[in-house]
Amino acid sequence: MNQPPAQPDLRPGLPKAATGIEGFDAVTFGGLPAGRPSLVCGAAGCGKTLFATTFLVNGVTRYGEPGVFMSFEERAEDLSANVASLGYDLDGLIGQGKLAIDHVRIERSEIEETGAYDLEGLFIRLGFAVDSVGAKRIVLDTIETLFSGFSDASVLRAELRRLFGWIKERGLTAIITGERGEGQLTRQGLEEYVSDCVVLLDNRVEDQITTRRLRVVKYRGSAHGTNEYPFLIDAEGISVLPVTSADLDYPAGEGVVATGIDGLDAMLGPGGFHRGSGILVSGEAGTGKTMICASMVDAACARGERCLSFVFEESGEQIIRNARSIGVDLARHVAAGLLRFEAARPSLYGLEMHLARMQRDLDRFGPDLVVVDPLSALRGPDAELQTTILRMADLLKARGITAVFTSLREDGGLGRDGDIGVSSLMDAWIRLLNVEANGERSRTLYVIKARGMSHSNQVREFAMSREGLRLVDAYIGPSGVLTGTARAVREAEEAAEVLRRRQENRRRQRETERRRRSLERRIEELRAGLEAVAEEEAILLDEEERREAALASERRDLAARRGAGR
């Protein structure tokens, strides 16, 4: 695995001229050696001329150093037309007197080598061009054509040294391009020895996929990165990206990132994922991985965060259209400049190039949230795939970016045999499953892990509708987990059973109330009977007392009459 180049020595050292080529100046700790010749070599189509042209254009536009481009193959008008698509206006720079392009036509058939043949005429022509614009930088493209008229190796070596010496005497920072030779860096095998810096460009094809790589073979008087680095040539120019594995010294992110899915946030202790986390969403096709990502992107953009989505199976427009079906409008975030899609087929570039493009886009867009959908689409040798995934995770973590990766494999594995696991690299893992029962398919979700936070270990069924993604508690009973219609039927059965029990309870309550009222009526009747008996008894007692009183009165009257008679 590549390691990042050591930090440069900060003590005074070799003066350098920045190329302005993104990444290359970082690899060389400042650029090419100032006032010295550098060799850029490689096979046809690897980008030598573009590299040299970018060096000159950036010298004029960024560093105020005029330049001279001396071509031995392409005409000036052809060169201008070739680089115009990259935004380089060579004709405009020539009109401003900041750049000179000279095409030197050399035909071997027209050269008759003699003992007096040398490059004196070239020095005069080159010196005039340098003086005409006050050049500080020059390019000679390509040197093999220049020396095609030499057959004597000793004369060739002497003239080559003389040319390089002339460049140093004039204090010019020079790039000399050369074609790759058989078993050596150049065809002549001499340029690399007299150059102070040698840069090798390679356009490598593996499994029908092209990857451009750059390596600094030597750099006299200066430290430099010694690894191979992928570099890009596209509409934005040339950029060398020193993608290496980062040290595990990045800080832990602070804060919580809500997913925008209420049910999922509720399953996580803090109410979302830790900022800067790596989140894996795995599941087979159709489980809803992309829509979960769309919901998370929508929530992030609503908070004013920038989101970058790398997609390998769908276009950005297609994802925007599909997200509308769940009530998510991603188009407004794209229009606001908060969301950007980078769509490419996995077979378009090699793994290194995909990773290099990602780093460049991260540096230029500065996202807070990144989606890679799906990670399992990347193809390549298992060892290279493992390295790429490690670098990708480190690349995002080192920048504190919250990353969401999707994988078509339920176990989170990659590679042909599934032996490349990425779940251990992730801070959180959401697993999606399709559950088939009763002739239907239902989606379920559960959180396998979430480092540094408590989380639910329950399975949730989730539904997608125009109201968004909604998580539903799955039914868990003696027969297992029920989802979809089976869950609805079971819930209906349970509701009916609850209703039956309630109705039975109410019936028993009514029967009890009826019996209570019946008993109360009987008690009232008995109480009324007792009162009637008591009342009758009182009447009888009163009548008896009256009879006794009457008898007593009669006896008193009788006794009174008897006494009066005597």
From TrEMBL:
Q: Residues in domain KaiC?
A: 15-254, 255-485
- Decide whether keyword Hydrolase is in the record: yes
Q: Which UniProt keywords apply?
A: Coiled coil, Hydrolase, Kinase, Phosphoprotein, Repeat, Transferase
Enzyme Commission code(s) on record: 2.7.11.1
This entry's Gene Ontology molecular function terms read: ATP binding; hydrolase activity; protein serine/threonine kinase activity
On the tree of life, the source organism's domain of life is: Bacteria
The protein's matches in PROSITE patterns, at most eight in alphabetical order, are given as: KAIC
| Ranges in coiled-coil conformation | 489-561
User: Does NADP count among this protein's keywords?
Assistant: no
**Pfam families the record matches:** ATPase (PF06745)
What name goes with this protein? non-specific serine/threonine protein kinase
Whose protein is this, by species? Methylorubrum rhodinum
